[in-house]
Amino acid sequence: DAGVIQSPRHEVTEMGQEVTLRCKPISGHNSLFWYRQTMMRGLELLIYFNNNVPIDDSGMPEDRFSAKMPNASFSTLKIQPSEPRDSAVYFCASSFPYNEQFFGPGTRLTVL
Amino acid sequence: EDQVTQSPEALRLQEGESSSLNCSYTVSGLRGLFWYRQDPGKGPEFLFTLYSAGEEKEKERLKATLTKKESFLHITAPKPEDSATYLCAGLMNSGGYQKVTFGTGTKLQVIP
Q1: Which residue of B has its CA nearest to A4?
Q2: Chain A closest CA to B39's CA: distance in Å?
Q3: In terms of C-beta density within 10 A (0-12 exposed, 13-18 middle, 19 or more buried), how is residue B36 classed?
Q4: Could you tell me which of A46, A57, A30, A49 has the C-alpha nearest to residue A107?
Q5: Residues B96, B108: contact at Cβ < 8 Å?
Q6: Which of B92, B44, B48 is nearest to B72 (CA)?
Q7: Which segments of chain B are extended strands (E)?
Q8: How many CB pairs lie under 8 A apart between chains A and B?
Q9: pLDDT by residue (tens digit) across A31-74?
């Protein structure tokens, strides 16, 4: 298996623009997680899906953030409008329930 | 509130100088404790899962142990390639679904 795939790997955008991050989980995994990592706050869980259904979105910072999982092999995290404070590395991870998570390589987002 | 705390924040070792990293947790109903390694610019890489107090797991120079309050990652005779940030995470059941809480990590530097 290729592991968790994320795209793009790097994204530079201007404040106010829409940003869409994409994730393909490991085939067969039915839990998917979106995290944000910064030096100040470490690794923060944004949202967690189980069988394509959002279970816990309490970590989503505000209404500017939204996530979807239309099928078992694809998820998106959208930020609209983006702000400089959204600059961070965003990770997607997948797992079987109650098992270790496998992380993607991350998307480094810079909002100017 | 479920919490996972890692110490020290940073650790600098000479090559061959053994040491331990600590992960203390206050979570209700711990189902498992994960250890990850993260290299700069990459996603966390899974190392170990520990499920019950007294359990130990080993991989090369690393050994992870678990008690009812904390976990240790012992590094024996480290080499420069062991330099990385080590993250631990507690897995628990929350409302019938899994919840994972990450610590902020220990940044390990091994000097030749």
Answers
A1: B43
A2: 11
A3: buried
A4: A46
A5: no
A6: B48
A7: 3-7, 10-14, 19-26, 30-38, 45-50, 56-59, 62-66, 70-75, 84-94, 97-102, 106-111
A8: 50
A9: 999 999 999 889 999 999 999 999 999 999 889 999 999 999 99
